[in-house]
Amino acid sequence: MTFETIKESSLELPVKDKIELIGVLKSSYSRFDEHATEVSACPVCYSERIVKNGTRKGVQKYVCKDCKKNFNYKTNTVLSKVQKLNQWNEFVEDFVSLNITPIKALSQKLNLSEQTVFNWRHKLLSAMVLKTNPVFIKEPVEFDETFLRISRKGRRNLGIADKHKYRRWRKSLTGDSYNNVKVFFAAGRNSKQLDICQSHTGRTTVIDMKNYFTSDKFKNPTIYSDAHITYKSFFKDANIPHEIFKGKDHISPLNKEVHNQAVNAFIRNFKYFVNEHLRGVSTKYLPFYIKWYQFINDSKEQVFKKDILKFNLADKVCNTMVEDRSGLELYRQSETGFLRFLNNNGRTNYGNCKHHYYADKIAA
Ligand SMILES: [Zn+2]
Q1: CA 354, CA 364: separation in Å to the nearest integer?
Q2: Is there a domain that residue 258 lies in?
Q3: Å from CA of 78 to ligand 1 middle
Q4: Are strands 59-64 and 70-71 parallel, antiparallel or unpaired?
Q5: Which domain holds residue 19?
Q6: 167 with 266, same domain?
Q7: Do 228 and 354 sit in the same domain of this protein?
Q8: Whether 11 and 40 share a structural domain
Q9: Rounded to the nearest whole angstrom, what is the distance from the C-alpha of residue 69 to the centroid of ligand 1?
Q10: Number of CB atoms found within 10 A of residue 353's CB
Q11: Distance, CA 41 to ligand 1 centroid (Å)?
Q12: pLDDT of residue 160
């Protein structure tokens, strides 16, 4: 039977059957298939000696002549081995709506378990983490930092004997505590770009500043910040133009241009997003949520400028996910990545599954 005859005979079907047919087609199709590009190398051994090897559900399959592995465009992307990929159509629609739909509501809408929706969200975000990082070129950049308490949200058996005591202890943690994650914020005055970076735990040192400001993100910027002593000495030594302001209103009395109002608004919003809207996030997923916040911000900016329309946004997300080759590893490594982060900050006494993360603090 040719495609034309299938089309023609389907037109004659009763309405009830048409609806069923639409359902069947929808369930065997994912919008990522539209974005599938021709695979040019084996995703396992990177050999280019690959050949086409039939199709499955309309999707091209390949086989590698060297390692003999079968694969398709989804292999080694975050979409690899995802069941019910057709439901990602709605999932992506929800994502680009820029609503922060609660996991529970989304799981009901898609008729999937909360755990599945939770995993999908993290997969989607991990595919986006290393994409489109801003570069600040020859412009004033507002810089500031904030902190979030290290969180093991979602982890069972935290070993908290006394919940009240635990909460009191958490509230007592100040900004420079080793139980807090410092997050750097930079906002370009002219470019309107925003960069958010999970930096370190505890007090901000010159090394933390160096790690951040000598990255490729900054090309001859002028930094506006408060008069933090570490900032002052770092920028002076690094020969980076630096203007400071003092006082509560965050504006320099000498130059009204020197202030941090934009970056402070971002920090306030971000903390609201994490602490109120999402009711806290596990630190091991913080890089994903940072990316989400940046995505919402960038998209709003672009929609506001009418650069893109919404349907383009969905295409952009799908393209990113299909082309991405690093997100899957990032997603799988979120726990070890978190432990590495703690280790790099001199913490080895807790953090892994066998130890009770807070046990020593609560006992004290
Ligand atoms: Zn191969």
Answers
A1: 19
A2: yes
A3: 19
A4: antiparallel
A5: 1-30
A6: yes
A7: yes
A8: no
A9: 6
A10: 11
A11: 8
A12: 66
The three state secondary structure string of 68-91 is CCEECCCCCCCCCCCCCHHHHHHH
Q: How far is ligand 1, taken at its centre, from the CA of residue 40, in Å?
A: 11
CA gap 106, 109 in Å, rounded: 5
268: its two tokens? 């306030």
Instruction: Record the pTM.
Output: 0.83
**Pair of tokens at residue 114:** 């909360």
Kindly state whether residues 161 and 257 are assigned to the same domain.
yes
Distance between Cα 86 and ligand 1 center (Å): 28
Residue 140 lies in a domain: yes
Length of the chain: 364
Shared domain for 172 and 222, answered yes or no, is yes
- 77 Cα: distance to centroid of ligand 1 (angstroms): 16
Q: Strand 218-219 vs strand 222-226: parallel, antiparallel, or unpaired?
A: unpaired
Query: What CATH number did the domain enclosing 173 receive?
Result: 3.30.420
Structural domain includes residue 267:
yes
Whether 149 and 276 share a structural domain: yes
Provide the residue-wise pLDDT of the chain in tens; the chain has 364 residues.
788 999 899 999 999 999 999 888 887 788 888 888 788 889 888 899 999 999 888 889 999 999 999 999 988 888 888 888 888 888 988 998 888 888 899 999 999 999 999 999 999 999 888 776 889 999 999 999 999 988 877 766 666 667 787 777 777 777 787 788 999 999 999 988 899 999 988 889 999 999 999 888 999 999 999 888 999 999 999 999 999 887 666 666 677 788 888 999 999 999 999 988 888 888 889 989 999 999 888 888 877 776 666 557 888 888 888 888 888 888 888 888 888 888 888 776 544 333 344 444 443 3
Give me 102's structure tokens: 């609660």
Domains identified in the chain, total number: 3
All residues at 6 or more sequence positions from 213 whose CB lies less than 8 Å from its CB, including other chains: 223, 234, 238, 240
How far away, in angstroms, is 34 Cα from ligand 1 center? Answer: 24
82, exposed or middle or buried, with CB in 10 Å at 0-12, 13-18, 19+? middle
Calculate how far, in angstroms, residue 66's C-alpha sits from the geometric centre of ligand 1.
5
